[in-house]
Amino acid sequence: MKAQILSSKNPILRLALEEIASELIYPFDFVILAVSPRYPYYDVPIFISEILQVKGESFLAFHAIDAFENTNLIESGIVACFITFERKGRIKKFTASNLKPCKFKTLVNETANYISDNSSLFHIIIADYSNGYFPLFLKLLSSELERRKIPPDRICGAIASTSVKSGIRKPGYLFTDNKVIEDGFVILSFENIEGKIGLSTGIFKRGPVYAITSGEDFKIYELDGNLQVVSPRVS
Q1: Domain check: are 112 and 227 in the same one?
Q2: What's the start-to-end Cα distance of the chain, in Å?
Q3: Number of domains within the chain
Q4: 144/220 same-domain check
Q5: What is the pTM assigned to this prediction?
Q6: CB-based contacts of 206, cutoff 8 Å, min separation 6
Q7: pLDDT: is 35 or 131 the higher one?
Q8: How far from 229 is each of 71, 80, 217, 232, 233, CA to CA, in Å?
Q9: Is the dihedral of CA 85, 174, 50, 4 positive or negative?
Q10: Are residues 177 and 223 located together in one domain of the fold?
Q11: How distant is the alpha carbon of residue 64 from its chain centre?
């Protein structure tokens, strides 16, 4: 698997995506985008599909006030990660919207079934805070996965970020399948991909900072002179 990381701070959504498209090396298989909530949310899935020439099922975008392009903090813009699979890698998705306590029991069971049926895959969950409902849902889901003896070492995720005004948090929208997902979440499941989970503590550096000492094109072979990163098993 190889990736291209591109970004733009242009305050106009169309121009920001056109700037990214002008630097993009085609083709690619999937793109994940962190999009500032300052852009009109209803235009996001339309412009992504049109300007980046990507089908709705082949992208996931989510609101992020700030995002990273490698080691650079991109404020109020777009950061896009374009993924190309070199072997048998692919991405499956599970989506949910309108997350409410009355739906928890059914949705917990459906989500747990999906993860159970795909327990060998590496899962990334991106969610809207949903007025505090998602953390409650995640607690119930975690308990159900533990009851089913599904280990959590192949599941990670994050909550889309957005602004808070007068004590009220604006929705953190997600975008995929040419739709706007409100009060919901998306699970990206990577097949034939080796994944490893670490701990993020925000924008402050914690722990060691590694230097790439051997690489070619998109591939990293060595960090700090001794850590092998790419192996024949990676798609």
Answers
A1: no
A2: 5
A3: 2
A4: no
A5: 0.82
A6: none
A7: 35
A8: 19, 22, 14, 10, 11
A9: negative
A10: no
A11: 11
Q: What is the mean pLDDT of residues 58-80?
A: 91
Do 216 and 195 share a domain, yes or no? no
**pLDDT given for residue 200 in this prediction:** 59
pLDDT digits (tens, 9 = 90+) for 121-134: 999 999 999 988 99
Residue 69: the pLDDT is 86
The per-residue DSSP string of the chain comes to: -EEEEEEE--SSHHHHHHHHHHH--S--SEEEEEE-TTS-GGGHHHHHHHHTT--GGGEEEEE-SEEEETTEEEESSEEEEEEE-SSS-EEEEEEE-S--GGGHHHHHHHHHHHHHHTTTSEEEEEE--GGGHHHHHHHHHHHHHHHTT--GGGEEEEE----EETTEEPP--EEETTEEE-S-EEEEEEET---------SSS--S----EEEEETTEEEEETTTB----TT--
CA quadruple 144, 149, 150, 153: dihedral sign:
positive
Q: Do residues 231 and 117 share a domain?
A: no
Residue tagged 């490893």 (tokens): 196
d(CA 10, CA 16): 5
Looking at residue 153, its pLDDT comes to 84
Token pair of 6 as six digits: 């591109």
Going by their DSSP bridges, the two strands 59-63 and 30-35 should be labelled as parallel
